[in-house]
């Protein structure tokens, strides 16, 4: 049986290889371990092997695991859909939120961020493949929203997150990331240093197009079982 430790090692080497292959700075891509539906024991196992950043999609499940793992120095990222009446626990219990998709949500997160905590790191989720069923803003909305969110005092707008429609072909996987990277570059804002691009199936393509955070679940923790 392959252990989480072995898988982690394998993913880390895949990331290093991809960085090298496209002349990226070694260590420029952060591995976010996506632990949704997986038990706290799995998070603890990855932690023991040096993993510190974990991503969760479901608020109640995340809060429970945070309690169970209170002794661990974990950086928690929220990457799931946001309900506007659930922003307070997000603002209180997370270091990053990748899935902000409206000014209303951003304002609430800023207002509700506790004063003793540093500004909340956020990414705007962009619906880059324009799928009607997916959350996220359009590319056209990006410039104005960035400008408005940059003014909110308790948020730090770090960049963008995307979940493109799945593709098998490497070149096709690259296209949506390339388009979004270029759109952000055009804004010319140096603070936007984060591209939350890439999952188990398209990590290499995402890194080739500038990813700085890959969000990996299946390759690390195995298939998810939604019971
Ligand atoms: C579940 C999920 C992931 C992880 O996907 P895998 O294909 O299992 O690596 C990444 N990002 C988001 C937003 C997710 O919901």
From TrEMBL:
Residues modified as N6-(pyridoxal phosphate)lysine = 36
Does the entry feature the keyword Transmembrane, yes or no?
Answer: no
Give one Pfam family. Ala_racemase_N
Q: Give the protein's cofactors.
A: pyridoxal 5'-phosphate
InterPro entries to which the protein is assigned, alphabetical: Ala_racemase_N (IPR001608), PLP-binding_barrel (IPR029066), PyrdxlP_homeostasis (IPR011078)
Q: What does this protein do?
A: Pyridoxal 5'-phosphate (PLP)-binding protein, which is involved in PLP homeostasis.
Report the protein name in the record.
Answer: Pyridoxal phosphate homeostasis protein
Source species: Methylobacter tundripaludum (strain ATCC BAA-1195 / DSM 17260 / SV96)
């Amino acid at each position: 049986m392959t252990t989480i430790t072995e898988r982690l090692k394998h993913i880390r080497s895949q990331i290093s290889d991809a960085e090298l292959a496209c002349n990226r700075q070694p260590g420029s891509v952060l591995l976010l371990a996506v632990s949704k539906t997986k038990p706290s024991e799995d998070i603890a196992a990855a932690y023991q092997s040096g993993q510190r950043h974990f991503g969760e999609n479901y608020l109640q499940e995340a809060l429970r695991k945070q309690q169970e793992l209170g002794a661990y120095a974990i950086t928690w990222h929220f990457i799931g859909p946001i309900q506007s009446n659930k922003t307070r626990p997000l603002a209180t219990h997370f270091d990053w939120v990748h899935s902000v998709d409206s000014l209303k949500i951003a304002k609430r997160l800023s207002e509700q961020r506790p004063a003793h905590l540093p500004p909340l790191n956020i990414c705007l989720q962009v619906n880059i493949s324009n799928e009607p069923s997916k959350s996220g803003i359009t590319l056209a909305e990006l410039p104005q929203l960035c400008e408005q969110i940059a003014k909110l005092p308790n948020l730090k707008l770090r960049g963008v997150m995307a979940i493109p429609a799945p593709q098998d072909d490497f070149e096709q996987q690259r296209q949506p990331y390339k388009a979004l990277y270029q759109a952000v570059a055009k804004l010319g804002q140096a603070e936007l240093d984060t591209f939350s691009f890439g999952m188990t199936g398209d990590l290499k393509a995402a890194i080739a197009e500038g990813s700085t955070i890959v969000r990996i679940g299946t390759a690390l923790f195995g298939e998810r079982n939604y019971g």
